[in-house]
Amino acid sequence: MTNVLLIHGPNLNLLGKREIDIYGNKTLEEINDLLMGKARELKINLEIKQYNCEGRIIESIHQARDRFDGIIINPGAYSHYSIAIRDAIAGVKLPTIEVHLSNIYAREDFRHFSVISPVVIGQISGLGELSYILALEAIVNIIETIKKRGD
Fold first, then answer.
1. Alpha-helical regions (H) of the chain
2. Is position 87 annotated in a ligand binding site?
3. Is position 6 annotated in a ligand binding site?
4. CATH number, domain at 64?
5. This model's pTM is above 0.85
6. Which of 9, 30, 128, 136 has the fewest Cβ atoms within 10 angstroms?
7. How far apart are CA 5 and CA 73, in angstroms?
């Protein structure tokens, strides 16, 4: 069975209460419930974590190497400056998709660049909770393609 790790980064625990005009009114729990339903539909195991601390995100990525087939990550603000998270993703060599609820390219200039993007398969942003659903569908497709090739 396919195993996927989803990591929500800092401040995502405040969804539904924080900047609703940017992030929408769904809570993290509501988004996670939606994703768990999609995981059941796709017949995969999905483990979801949320961390506000960079070190815990890195540890989770390291531990994923032997337990998961792929990663979906919303690094939040760490997207724009965490070389350590970038290096952890590159180091575990698991297919990874970067997700953002908001369109980071339509926001403040400092959000237009992600240090994470060069080491992930792709990035989905700006579609709210649909960004996560599309990332889940994509990572499952990518993992299945890799397994068929025998990589």
1. 20-23, 28-42, 54-64, 83-92, 129-149
2. yes
3. no
4. 3.40.50.9100
5. yes
6. 30
7. 8
DSSP state of 76: G
pLDDT tens, position by position, for the chain (151 residues)? 999 999 999 999 998 887 777 777 899 999 999 999 999 999 999 999 999 999 999 999 999 999 999 999 999 999 999 999 999 999 999 999 999 998 777 676 766 679 999 999 999 999 999 999 999 999 999 999 999 987 6
What domain range includes position 100? 3-149
Number of domains forming the structure of the chain: 1
The answer to the question of whether 42 is labelled as a binding residue is no
Active site residue 105: no
Exposed / middle / buried, residue 5 (Cβ in 10 Å: 0-12, 13-18, 19+)? buried
